[in-house]
Amino acid sequence: MFEDRKQAVAHDRMLESVERLRELIEASAIKGVSEELADQLAYYLVQNKDKTLGALKGAGAASESASAEGEAAADDAAPEEEAESEAEPKGGRKRKGRVA
Fold this sequence. Notes:
Elements: H1 5-27, H2 35-47, H3 49-57, H4 61-77, H5 80-86
Helix pairs in contact: 1-2, 3-4
């Protein structure tokens, strides 16, 4: 199904994100959301994560699409940066520690 382990791991992460979002949607106070609709919505949000995050941050649509294109090119060019960004604290900045 996948050409290499990296693609399989990325796919697994995507599915885990979809599952977490589906659970969040189903746990919401919104009435009448079927499991199928929750799955579809969660999948859409994950597949469009840059736009989703931009909307949550209040970024404009024009700057968001330009940012998404730039990030897509950066993802293809430097996959090791993704691993580093996952290790960053929630504030977005890496903490500098003292070496004893």
